TrEMBL record:
InterPro entries: 6-PGluconate_DH-like_C_sf, 6DGDH_YqeC, 6PGD_dom2, 6PGDH_C, 6PGDH_NADP-bd, NAD(P)-bd_dom_sf, Pgluconate_DH. This is Decarboxylating 6-phosphogluconate dehydrogenase. Signal peptide: none annotated. It holds the Pfam family 6PGD. Belongs to the 6-phosphogluconate dehydrogenase family. Pathway: Carbohydrate degradation; pentose phosphate pathway. It comes from the Bacteria. Residues 169-320 form the 6-phosphogluconate dehydrogenase C-terminal domain. One of its GO terms (molecular function) is NADP binding. Transmembrane segments: none annotated.
């Protein structure tokens, strides 16, 4: 019989919402964070003030989820947990850790203390964590079998898969995030085209229509319409922030000799959004001026040639 007591380290947006969902479904959850949130109103979620207290409240074999940002902090938390755990206990890394780090950590934990590490790629955002997520799991089948009941209960129907050995779950999630970047970029470019059409288009209505039977219907299109309506247009800063995981995927692709031009370019465009004083186009303009005498800034004659003097040019409305 699967034990129904789990620890969760990291009670941010993802960790807390998953903990609340699990508690509401009858699991006993022990939660810890350096900055504890206000006590949620649920009888099955207990917040503690130390990792030692968390470990003391778990049944053996202990199962501890980590939901903190990827990177060195994961090694720190694992280092703090390891002396408190015993052979057969399980650590589940639910963040966006690099898959190579997950393989390393799993090998070290297994060799040093016989502790299992499961890499748990988690998708669906905050709403998914609260109402039904999507999980991609890498790790030993023996360990995975002890937590998959919980993960299946926390996922949407068919939103769970054991992808293979250690590292595979985080690799699959990384590829997922790369695809996400490409889709975001394509939708963003589509919005730019709609906004620059010769007549004003009802973008909200178009997005609503696209999500009813079109090939591009999706949650992302749904979110695009929702935010477009809330902000009354594209009234947000152009600066796009991210945590950098997809950069790993671009590097991996080069090592694997796999061509991913769309994903790679989406990363470049994201980076470009952060530079309000972008030097690259200024440098290009300087060189074009040097070799061809091309003007700096706008030039109506060249603009006319670009639109009307080339194959595929289209007639501009009189108002422009």
């Amino acid at each position: 019989m699967e034990k129904h007591t789990y620890g969760v380290v990291g009670l941010g947006k993802m960790g807390l919402n998953l903990a609340l969902q699990a508690a509401e479904k009858g699991y006993q959850i022990i939660g810890y964070d350096k900055y504890l949130p206000a006590q949620p109103e649920t009888e099955n979620l207990t917040l503690v003030n130390s990792l030692q207290e968390l470990i003391n409240k778990l049944d053996r074999p202990r199962k501890v989820f980590i939901y903190i940002p990827a990177g060195a902090a994961i090694d720190v938390v694992i280092g703090e947990l390891t002396p408190l755990l015993e052979e057969g206990d399980i650590i589940i890394d639910g963040g966006n850790s690099y898959w190579g780090d997950s393989i390393r950590r799993a090998k070290e934990l297994k060799a040093d203390k016989g502790i299992h590490l499961i890499d748990c790629g988690t998708s669906g955002g905050v709403s998914g964590a609260r109402n039904g997520a999507c999980f991609m799991i890498g790790g030993d089948k023996e360990a995975v079998s002890q937590i998959e009941g919980l993960l299946k209960d926390l996922s949407v129907p068919n939103g769970y898969t054991h992808t293979g050995a250690s590292g595979s779950g985080h690799f699959v999630k990384l590829v997922h995030n790369g695809i996400e970047f490409g889709m975001l970029q394509a939708i963003g470019e589509g919005m730019d085209l709609l906004a620059h059409y010769r007549e004003e288009l009802n973008i909200s209505e178009i997005l609503h229509t696209w999500n009813h039977g079109s090939v591009v219907r999706s949650w992302l299109i749904e979110l695009m319409k929702k935010l477009y309506d809330e902000k009354q247009g594209f009234n947000v800063p152009s600066y796009v922030e991210d945590t950098g995981e997809v950069n790993w995927l671009v590097t991996d692709a080069m090592h694997m000799e796999v061509s991913i031009p769309v994903i790679a370019q989406s990363v470049m465009q994201l980076i470009a959004s952060r530079d309000s004083e972008n030097i690259a186009p200024k440098a290009i303009a300087m060189m074009r001026n040097g070799f061809g005498g091309h003007p700096f800034g706008t030039d109506e004659g060249i603009r006319y040639e670009r639109h009307f003097g080339k194959v595929g040019g289209y007639e501009q409305p009189d108002s422009k």
